[in-house]
Specification:
The structure holds two protein chains of two kinds.
Chain A lengths: L1 H11 L18 H9 L4 H26 L8 H12 L9 H5 L1 H6 L8 H18 L7 H17 L1 E2 L1 H55 L3 E2 L9 H28 L3 H16 L2 H15 L8 H27 L2 H9 L4 H31 L11 H9 L9 H28 L6
Helix pairs in contact in A: 7-8, 8-9, 10-11, 10-13, 10-15, 10-16, 11-13, 12-13, 13-15, 14-15, 15-17
Chain B lengths: L1 H15 L7 H8 L2 E6 L7 E2 L5 E2 L1 H14 L5 E6 L4 H6 L5 E2 L7 H5 L3 E3 L4 E3 L1 E6 L13 E6 L3 H12 L4 E6 L2 H9 L5 E5 H9 L7 E3 L7 E3 L2 E3 L3 H20 L6 H4 L6 H7 L5 H5 L5 H9 L2 H8 L29
Parallel strand pairs in B: 1-4, 1-5, 9-10, 9-11
Antiparallel strand pairs in B: 2-3, 6-14, 7-13, 8-11, 8-12
Helix pairs in contact in B: 3-9, 3-13
C-alpha cells in the first residue's frame, strides 16, 4: 500500500526531463554594462567622480589633441609658422609648430657631426644593436659574442674615425692580457698571474700602444675621416654617453660589489671608500669636477677630451650604484649557495662565475635596470657644462632668431624620445625577469 | 674598454703636453684654428644655424680674430660655455678668447686674472611690461611682481633699484630666458627684467610685440666685451686691436665692400696704416701686414656686424643707442692706429 502511495506521489511530482536552453544573462550583469557598473558607477559618489574625471579628460584632450594634430610641419621660422596658422585656421587658434623639428632634425639627432658622414653613427647604432643582441637574448648563437667583444673598438672607430690602428692597438692590450694570464698561471700561480694580467697591459697601453699605432699607421695608413668630440651633439651625444656608461659601469659595478664582500683588507676598504665617496656626492658635482677641476690638474695646453671625461665620470658614478644593487643581490643569496660552491671544490672565481653571480645578478635585474634608466636620463645634466645634448640644443635652437619663442614642441619631442628609450629598457627587464624566473616563491 | 680609452688618452695627452709652454699666438697658428668660447645660445649674439654654422654678434668677434691671426674667418673651433664654465675654460687654456656677452666688472678683471680687451656692446638692464598695465615709467612699478633670472647681476641690480627708490616688489625667480618668456606671457609676473638687448630679442618673438613695451629706464651698466687670460699681453693686444680695428673701420668708412679698393692705397694715412699699405703695424703684432684687410673683408666693420646680427633690420631690431660711434653721440671710441 505504502509502495503504491509512494509511486503515485512520484508520478505526480514535476520532474523536468530535458535541459533548459542557455539564456542570456541579464543586461546589467554582462559585458560592458557590467564592467561599467562595477568599475565606474558602483555608488553615487563613484558615479559623480567618474563623470567629473571624464569631463576633465575630455577638456584636456580637446585642447591638447587639436594643438598636436593641427600642428604645422613645413615652415622656416616661427613667424612663418604663425602666418601659415592664421591663413589655415584663422586668428586665435593655438597649434603646435612642429616645423622646428623638421628644420633642426639633423642637429637634434647628430649635433654638429659632418652631414656627409651621418651614415657612420647610423651604422654604429645598427652594429651596436647587433652586438648587444646575443647578450640580451640567449637564444641567439653564442659565436656572435665574439663580434660583441670586438664591437666597442669597431664602434669607437666608426664614431670618431681616424686611423684604424689606434683601436686595434688598444684591443691588442686585451689579447696581451689574456696571453699573460694563460702563460703566467702555471709559472707564478693564480694571484701573481692576476696581478701580472692587470699590470702588463697597463704598461703596454701607457708606453707602447700609442707609438706602435703611429708606426704601423706610417707604414700602412688605413683610416676614415677623424671627427672630434666637439662635433658630437643631440641624441647622438646622449646615446654615446648613456650607452658607454651603461656598458662600462656594469662590469665595474660587479667588481666593486665583489670587492666590498671581499676578505682582503685593502681591496675591501678601497671598494667601500670608492662607493661611498662617489655615491655621496651629486652627479652634477662630478661633472663640474670633470669639466673644470681636472683642467687645473692636467698640464696646461693638454686637451683631455671633455666628452671622455664625462663618460668616465658617469661610468664611475653609476658603477657605485650598480655595486650596491649587486651587493644586495649577493646578500640575498642563502649561505648554503656559497658553502655548496665550496664543497664542490670550486675556487673563488669559478664559484662566483658559475654559482653566485648568476643568481645574484638575476635578483638584481630590476635594480640594475632602474639604475641604467636613471643614468641615461642623467646624461641631460651635461647641458650644465656646455655640452650640447638635446636639451642643450633646444636652448641653442631657441637662440636663433628663426625659432626664438618655440618652447613646448622641443621639450615634448625630447621627452618622447627619452620615454621610448627608457620604456624599452624597462620592458626588456620585465621580459628577462619572466624568463629567468626559476622561482623560489 | 674604459681603462684602455682612459690610458690611451693619457698617453696622447702626455705627448700633447710638450707644446704647452708656447705662447697663445704660436699655439693658435700651430693648431690652425682659434678656440673661441661662446654662449650655448643667446639670440643675436651666438647661436648655431640649421647647418651648424655659428652666427651672431659675439661670434663675429671670434671670426674677426681668426681672420686676423690665420687669414681664415672659418678657422674657429667654437666651444659652447655656460655661465659657470666660461671663466674656468678661459683660465685653463681650453679656449684662447672668450666672447660670451660677459660684463666687464672689477672683480672679473682683477680677481679672476682676466684681461678685458674692450667693449663690443654697451648693454644695460631694462624692464618690459604688457601695454595693458598702463605703465610708462619704471618709477610706477611699486608693488609689481617681477620675473628675474636667479644668480645674475640683474637680480642684484633690481634689488638696488627698488630699494633706492623706496619701492617694493615681489620677485618670481626663474632659471632661463626661455622659461621667463613663458612665465611672463602666462601672466605669472607683471614685469620681466633683463638686459635691454635680451628684452628686445624676447619681445620680437611674441605673437603681438606691440602689446608689450620696454620701459625707458636703464638701471645698470653692462659693458660686454671679449676677454683673454692674464699673462700673454701680445695675444691680448691682437684681440684688442682687432676689436679696435672693427670700430675704427666704421669710423673711417672702411666696409667689406670697399676694403679691397682702399687696400690699394688711399689719401688717408690712417686707413693706409690700418690696411698695411703704410707702416708696419701688422708686423708689430706678429701678424701679416694685411691682417685687417682679412678681418674687414670677411666679417665687415663694426657697423656691418651690428646691422647684420642685432640691428634694426633684423627681427631683434636694436637701435645703435650707446653703441653708436662717438661722432654720432655714442660711446664707441677706438684709440688711433698710429
Amino acid at each position: 500500500m505504502s509502495d503504491t502511495h509512494a509511486e503515485s506521489a512520484l508520478a505526480t511530482a514535476f520532474v523536468r526531463k530535458d535541459m533548459l536552453p542557455e539564456r542570456e544573462p541579464p543586461v546589467a550583469e554582462k559585458g560592458a554594462v557590467k564592467w561599467l557598473r562595477e568599475n565606474l558607477f558602483s555608488s553615487v559618489l563613484n558615479s559623480i567622480l567618474t563623470v567629473l574625471s571624464v569631463f576633465v579628460i575630455y577638456w584636456v584632450l580637446s585642447h591638447v589633441l587639436g594643438w598636436i594634430f593641427y600642428g604645422i610641419w613645413d615652415a622656416d621660422s616661427l613667424t612663418q609658422c604663425r602666418e601659415i596658422r592664421d591663413e589655415r585656421y584663422g586668428e586665435g587658434m593655438e597649434v603646435a609648430c612642429w616645423a622646428v623639428l623638421t628644420d633642426r632634425w639633423d642637429q637634434l639627432t647628430f649635433g654638429f657631426y659632418p652631414s656627409e658622414l651621418y651614415w657612420r653613427p647610423v651604422l654604429a647604432l645598427i652594429l651596436f644593436l647587433g652586438a648587444i643582441a646575443p647578450v640580451l637574448y640567449a637564444e641567439l648563437p653564442r659565436k656572435l659574442l665574439a663580434f660583441t667583444a670586438a664591437s666597442p673598438f669597431i664602434l669607437y672607430w666608426l664614431l670618431w674615425g681616424g686611423s684604424i690602428w689606434g683601436p686595434i692597438a688598444v684591443a691588442a692590450g686585451f689579447i696581451i692580457a689574456w696571453l699573460v694570464f694563460k702563460t703566467a698561471v702555471p709559472i707564478i700561480g693564480q694571484l701573481g698571474a692576476i696581478i701580472a694580467t692587470v699590470v702588463v697591459p697597463i704598461l703596454y697601453w701607457m708606453f707602447l700602444a700609442g707609438p706602435l699605432a703611429g708606426v704601423i699607421d706610417g707604414i700602412l695608413p688605413i683610416g676614415i675621416e677623424y671627427v672630434p668630440s666637439d662635433d658630437f651633439g643631440g641624441f647622438m651625444l646622449a646615446f654615446v654617453i648613456g650607452i658607454a656608461g651603461i656598458i662600462l659601469s656594469l662590469p665595474l659595478g660587479v667588481v666593486l660589489a665583489l670587492g666590498r664582500q671581499s676578505d682582503l683588507f685593502i681591496i675591501n676598504k678601497f671598494s667601500v671608500i670608492f662607493i661611498e665617496v662617489i655615491r655621496g656626492v651629486p652627479l652634477i658635482v662630478w661633472l663640474f669636477t670633470a669639466s673644470l677641476l681636472l683642467n687645473y690638474f692636467l698640464p696646461p695646453g693638454t686637451n683631455f677630451d671633455l666628452m671622455l671625461r664625462v663618460i668616465i665620470m658617469v661610468t664611475l658614478f653609476s658603477s657605485a650604484y650598480i655595486a650596491e644593487v649587486v651587493r644586495g643581490g649577493l646578500a640575498a643569496l642563502p649561505r648554503g649557495q656559497y658553502e655548496g660552491a665550496d664543497s664542490l671544490g670550486l675556487d673563488y672565481w669559478q664559484s662566483m662565475r658559475l654559482i653566485i653571480l648568476p643568481q645574484a645578478l638575476k635578483i638584481s635585474i630590476p635594480g640594475i635596470v632602474s639604475t641604467f634608466i636613471g643614468l641615461f636620463k642623467d646624461t641631460t645634466l651635461v647641458v650644465f657644462i656646455g655640452l650640447l645634448d638635446p636639451i642643450g640644443f633646444s636652448n641653442a635652437i631657441r637662440a636663433s632668431t628663426d625659432w626664438n619663442g618655440v618652447y613646448w614642441e622641443l621639450f615634448i619631442f625630447i621627452g618622447l624620445c627619452f620615454f621610448i628609450s627608457c620604456y624599452s629598457m624597462s620592458r626588456y627587464s620585465q621580459y628577462l625577469e619572466r624568463k629567468l624566473r626559476t622561482d623560489h616563491r | 674598454m674604459k681603462k684602455s680609452v682612459f690610458l690611451g688618452t693619457l698617453a696622447v695627452a702626455g705627448l700633447a703636453a710638450g707644446f704647452a709652454s708656447a705662447q697663445t699666438l704660436a699655439e693658435v697658428q700651430e693648431r690652425g684654428a682659434l678656440n673661441c668660447g661662446v654662449t650655448t645660445g643667446l639670440t643675436g649674439f651666438a647661436a648655431p644655424d640649421a647647418n651648424g654654422e655659428w652666427a651672431g654678434f659675439d661670434v663675429a668677434i671670434c671670426r674677426a680674430v681668426a681672420a686676423a691671426v690665420l687669414g681664415d674667418p672659418m678657422a674657429v673651433e667654437f666651444v659652447p660655455t655656460t655661465g659657470q664654465t666660461r671663466f674656468t675654460a678661459l683660465a685653463s687654456g681650453e679656449i684662447d678668447v672668450l666672447a660670451r656677452n660677459t660684463t666687464w666688472t672689477f672683480s672679473r678683471d682683477v680677481d679672476l686674472s682676466f684681461e678685458f680687451v674692450g667693449v663690443n656692446y654697451y648693454d644695460g638692464q631694462g624692464f618690459m611690461v604688457p601695454r595693458d598695465l598702463g605703465v610708462s615709467s619704471a618709477m610706477e612699478l611699486d608693488g609689481a611682481t617681477v620675473c628675474i633670472q636667479t644668480g645674475t647681476t640683474t637680480e642684484l641690480n633690481l634689488a638696488d633699484f627698488f630699494a633706492s627708490n623706496n619701492m617694493s616688489y615681489e620677485p618670481v625667480p626663474i632659471e632661463t630666458n626661455a622659461e621667463a618668456q613663458q612665465q611672463y606671457l602666462a601672466g605669472a609676473c607683471d614685469v620681466y627684467t633683463t638686459d635691454a638687448s635680451g628684452l628686445a630679442a624676447t619681445r620680437a618673438t611674441f605673437e603681438d610685440p606691440s602689446a608689450h613695451v620696454v620701459l625707458p629706464e636703464i638701471i645698470s651698466k653692462e659693458p660686454l666685451g671679449p676677454l683673454v687670460r692674464h699673462g700673454d699681453n701680445e695675444w691680448g693686444d691682437i684681440v684688442r686691436w682687432t676689436l679696435n680695428g672693427l670700430i675704427s673701420a666704421e669710423e673711417l668708412g672702411i666696409t667689406s665692400a670697399n676694403v679691397m679698393e682702399l687696400a690699394a692705397g688711399t689719401e688717408n694715412p690712417e686707413i693706409n696704416r690700418m690696411l698695411g699699405t703704410e707702416g708696419e703695424l701688422g708686423a708689430m703684432l706678429g701678424l701679416e701686414s694685411d691682417w685687417l684687410v682679412n678681418v674687414i673683408s670677411s666679417v665687415g666693420n663694426y657697423g656691418e656686424i651690428f646691422e647684420g646680427n642685432i640691428g634694426e633690420n633684423t627681427p631683434i631690431g636694436l637701435a645703435r643707442g650707446l653703441n653708436a660711434q662717438w661722432t654720432d653721440g655714442g660711446l664707441l671710441y677706438s684709440p688711433p692706429f698710429r
